[in-house]
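2024-03-11 09:14:02 DEBUG pipeline.ingest accepted 1 chain
2024-03-11 09:14:02 DEBUG pipeline.ingest length=374
2024-03-11 09:14:03 DEBUG pipeline.predict start
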Amino acid sequence: MAKTPGVRQRGRIWYIDYYAGGKRYVETVGPSYKDAVAVLGGIKNDIREGRWFPRKMRNVPFDKLADQYANLKKGKTGKEKLPYIGQIRKFFAGRMVQDIGVLEVEQFKEYIMKLPKRGGGKRGASDVNHHLDDLRAILNKAIQWENIERNPAVGGKVQRLPKPPGRNEYLTVEQAGRLLDACHPHLRPIVLCALETGMRKSEILGLRWKEIRNNMIYLPGERTKNGKPREIPISERLMVELQRIRRHQSKGNVLDTSGIVFKAVRGTPSEDETRRLKVLSIGIKDFRSAWKAAKERAGIAPGFHFHDLRHTFASHQKMAGVDDYTLMELLGHSDFTMMKRYAHLTPEHKRKAVEMLPDWNSGNILGGGIPADA
């Protein structure tokens, strides 16, 4: 039998021997000489056409890669911290990682853009971009694990959607007061905390007593968006509310310092709160329904988001004259770019700024003014 160069036998097993990218590769095929010749021919053809990958990069199912990546992103509760991976898994199910190129990423982008939101309507640019970000992260991990050599979701080949201008929604002092008055007793301290600290909803709802000390809130890096710890002073108004909650939770016993501050139930409402509940005829089923009901009673637009309380905090800090660096530290921003969205000021604030101009004629400059015929 005439032997094909690069095909050799050891015992009953056939091997193939070839060079690619300046490296030598020797691979086991099996007991069939014809199979070894066919495999080597296919590899050489792939090398010529630029489609060749080392064996460890071949035939890796995307489902397996996604599962491995998801396992790395599980928190202490065992749940994935990947809100967008579901649609990624669904679109690439049954495909091999090595078969995903720029075209497939572009097709995924179009798929997400056309996918209706859960509540109806089109998906926003941020939502589409978040899906692309998670896909890019998964494929970056595939490079690290030597499943692929290049990431088709990076390098500008697949354009991200342009981000819309940041939301500038914020409440006036009068609107914020109405909203607080309209809140269920269990929701009110949460809203107050957002207005007084500018913290994100996840940071507030996850706040623990051990993170509160010396009239400060100390957020650890694992609970902040940018992964950096943050210190936030507690105002007197918020401190009074926190002390009230603490009394309800402790009930004379030692308080669990690792416990959540804003629990669903915090003791029996006072007589005033009970009377107020009867007047408003409300009940708290979950955070979303309570928030929606409070906005309706306060006459706040339905499109006002809880996150806009963070904008409210920042806007009023800005109008009070707080410098950008301090505001950046309070909000946990890593640069000044985000500060631009808080440049909007109320007409009253702008009017006060103009009224602070000096009396130009007070110094009798130019003898009372320039003559009209000058």
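2024-03-11 09:14:41 DEBUG pipeline.report The radius of gyration is 31 Å.
2024-03-11 09:14:41 DEBUG pipeline.predict end
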